[in-house]
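The aim of this short unit is practical: by the end, you should be able to scan a pair of folded records and say something sensible about each. We start with the first protein, listed as its amino acid sequence and then its structure tokens.
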Amino acid sequence: MSLKKYIERIERMNWLISKKATGTPIEFARKMDISRSLLMEYLKFMKQLGGAIKYDTHAQSYIYLDDKEFYCGFSPKYSPGHQLANEEIMQYGLSPKAKFQRTYGNYFQNFSKSNHIGQS
């Protein structure tokens, strides 16, 4: 399976968790079209990345315990003429890409190697 597919699954999981719409672990696995054991591996990986995730029995959904959310993608590069990126850097101190790299370091690289992602 490609790294892109893994990231897409994590992004979908992030969306369902942030909406508190996962359902029970079995329902969540069905929504993701994966086994329950594979779902648990993804959740473990998301937690290793810094996601504070837990199952809320009252809401019958996985939830985030803090204001973080998963982000993997591209963001505007800092340039003297690019006002939005400059304001973002001034407000938050780092671009989303730099924050992502600083926060997650080599997690994706290690995950990819251990799961043989991108290898023929």
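Turning to the second protein, read its sequence before its tokens, just as you did above.
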Amino acid sequence: MATLACAGATTPASPETSLVEGRGAQLRVGFEGVRELEGTLVCALFADQASFDSSAPPLRATVLPLAAEGVEWALELPLGTYAVKVFQDLDNDGELDRGALGRPTEPYGFSNDARGRFGPPSWQEAHFEIDRPELRIEIGLE
């Protein structure tokens, strides 16, 4: 897997001691269902329901290039509650393209593989807890 480190490029000598003592953790986000090697993955991490449910800026965001061996987003974060939104930007315009009825036409996904019925999922469906030094999650793109 290709790894893009975001925020905190230094690796502690012992993640078990330094991350826990500093009340931080490493989150790794993997992605499944990527359509070919076209475009990029646009990822956003949110730390609260208000920003997740609105157009407020995320806590962290990145654009990941696609690679044959896969893509992973690695972040160092404080322990806490988070949610992730991602979409594959097939045309590299920085926006999630939608059809006439508003349904996305580019692959997209959320943490916990949460799916909304008539729109995005709720914070309650998508959030997860980081309560240990390392956590890896997978997001399936639809």
